[in-house]
Design brief:
two-stranded antiparallel ribbon; globular; 13 strands; nine-stranded mixed β-sheet
Amino acid sequence: MKSKILKLFIRNLFLLTLFVAFSYNIVSAQSDNKKPLIGISSYSESDVVKAGRTYIESVRKAGGIAIVIPITTNVEQIDEILERIDALVMIGGEDLSPFYYKEEPNRFLGEVAPERDVFDIELIKKAHKKGIPILGVCRGEQALNVALGGTLFQDIPSQVSGSVQHNQKAPRNYGAHSIKVEENTLLYSLLKKGLDKNNHIRVNSFHHQAVKDLGKGLKITARALDGVVEAIESEDGKALGVQFHPEGFVYSGDDTFLPIFKWIVDKAKE
């Protein structure tokens, strides 16, 4: 009798173990397949908070879920937002105020958005401190540099001798000028298939400001052929900034720069 009870106990224990293992594998698989939440910074226009569909669709195409973060100067709310997202994309837009890097405004300084400046700088600083992956695009790259203590050329045409046209008059999916990508960098690994034998690739260009002095923990990974900085990345591999607009290509169906968005989505999964 005791032998039968023992056999029954062992059998049930075996079945219970199988059930627990099976359930764990299902939950684990669901967790692995869960798409990361990518926060997209925003800009304000006529009291409406916005972010371009180009960014949202690029994140979606790369396998993530995009959520637009409304501008706020409430520090506590920024902390709560960062607790909920897995990565951050800082988008393009207005000029950054030079007061953030202790300079007076150049006569060619464009439109600035004071409330957005406060929001973007604070958002980047807190995300960086928390180790949240960051992708900065155009203004987003510049804001990343400034948030980490760097400076900018306020106006390329008047401050960089011999510069090419950096504010193109062509569509967003047209590569207006070339950049050279440095080997052994994150950006090189992402764009390697699209580079020519000189490590050049053509990019779009919609800016008149650019990185001058680097922020702490950053390095230059690409330049235009006139020497203007076109990409930076952090030494810890958690932040990437590009001066061009990869989303402009991806949204139009050109996947040459899609690996940039795949990187931020994959990094978010970690």
